[in-house]
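Batch 3, record 17
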Amino acid sequence: MELVTPDIGLVFWMTLTFLGLLFILTKFVWPPILKSLKEREDFIERSLKSAEDAKAEMSKLKAENEALLVEARAERDKILKEAREMKEKLIADAKQSANEESNRMIASARAEIDKEKVQALSDIKKQVAGLSLDIAEKILKRELDKGDDHDALVAEHLNKSQMN
Amino acid sequence: MNKAQKFFGSIQILLFSFLITVNAYASEPQIHGEETHETAQNEHHESDHHEAAHEEHGEENFNAGDMIMHHIADGHDWHLWDWKGHAVSIPLPVILYNKERGLDVFLSSKFNHGHSTYAGYKYNHGEIVNADPNDTSTFYDISMTKNVVSIWISVIILLLVFLSVAKAYKKRGSDAPKGFQSIVEPLIVFLRDEVVKPSIGKGYERFMPFLLTVFFFIFLNNLLGLIPIFPGGANVTGNIAVTMVLAVLVLIVTLAVGNKHYYKHIVLPDVPLWLLPVMVIIEVLQVFLKPFVLMLRLFANITAGHIIILGFMSLIFIFGQMSFGGGLGAGLFSSAFSLFMSLLEILVAFLQAYVFTLLSALYFGAATEEHH
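Prediction for the assembled complex:
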């Protein structure tokens, strides 16, 4: 029974000592330790979180960059396409206007030529008429020598041919 | 006590015949060295007399029971070893208070190991009694016994370690731990995250100081108890007075922090009306049984561990009394087993401190729980 009978002296000293230990440790030891542990854990948690955030930011930036790149590529393609279209259109336009111009020039040249031709023909006709008159006059002077009636007859003939 | 006595009893039964033989020839003086020449039949006869020297100061043959009880019990001096038949021990202050005779303070060496009386008291097998058998006056023994001194040694160690650790935390802030910090920090974090937080939940912080102190106090004293020589060796956490104080403190804290749900659950449990009287008795009983079991568990586990190791050690001397070869064989066998047991006891030292802390935390948690 001696073993399970609490000894009053030991109970006394144990209570006193343990309460003293509890007091000192509670006052001076546990608060700073627990506080530091908590702070360190918070710090680690914060660091991990900010690392996570940085990672998320990074991937976001990367995605953004990629999107920008895709957009830029599309833009470039679009511009190139437009340029190509513009070039083709320009060429087509130029061709067309050149065609028109040449057609116009050809037409006007043709008209000029026709006009010149008519002029030339009329000149020729005049000259031919004149020549013919001269010739006829000379012939007539030499051979027939009949006066002004022949001239009137020739002019009448010329007017008739001009109307053709 | 049950566990302790049962084990002790089984050792006694096991070795009953040997002890009888040994005791039967106690008085014959013989020189120890001669026993190796004796025939097998005479070995018992001769072997016990290396104990003869002990008879000078009143000790009989080696008695495993007495030896074990002496080692696990508290004492008024700190027995170091025997030298040439005399106990070498550190005398400790004896403090006695008697209403009539007043306060007496003196060193236990005044008793001369039970041979002298002093100030009207005498020492009788680990207990101080009135020297005069007719004197029936009661007195209080508040001596600084072996366990008291051992508790103080453990407190000094705890303070040295933890004050320096606290200083390191203050200085180093939330930097990585260093030195002693690295030893205690995993334990503190383990207790906080695996024991206190899950057991108590919200508001666990205010119980941390008490539970940490209890854990480290029990753990260190368990470990000190495993060291067989001077600064250790006292059976502090295997002493019912020590575990009682711890358990009573747990009870006081539990009752102090208990909220209205806790008390309502005790005086008005949710049971049919006819069951109420029985349940109230059970509930009230379990309030006190919980810390009572805490007290017994720690006491019995640590004491049992000490008894087992001491039992193995006793085997050496019991067999040694019979024959030199027997002692040698038992010595090898017992040393191996005590080594194994000591390693197991290191685990038990941690485990029991952990269990005590865990259960205390659970009781606090139950007392502060908001709703079921």
